[in-house]
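#struct-help
A.M.: can someone run this one for me? Single chain, 105 residues.
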Amino acid sequence: MLFLKKGKPLDNSAGASQPGKEPAADDDSTAFASQEETRQAILSVLKLRQHLRWCKGIAEMGHVLTGDERGELTNAARAAYEEYGVQVVLQETDVVKRQSKGAEQ
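D.P.: on it. Structure tokens below:
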């Protein structure tokens, strides 16, 4: 599951191929993230966690985050994502699209 990308849900819960049905090479339902993409995502979360520990003065590497600390980590990640330049442009584009659709109706 570590490498599974978001996509269409699998046709069956076990993920096995259906009898008589060959899986398509471009089938999104079984798309996987590359190991490099997964490594980058995990590294990003670990860096965020390390930064939070550093800011709070927690030296223990194996420190288990409390519910409040997890909330802080999530809020910081969300804020960084929402302020990311590409994301800001995409959000502005979505607003313009919604406004133009509203004007057409």
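A.M.: thanks! The chain has a mean pLDDT of 76.
D.P.: also worth noting: The helical segments are 35-56, 67-83, 85-104.
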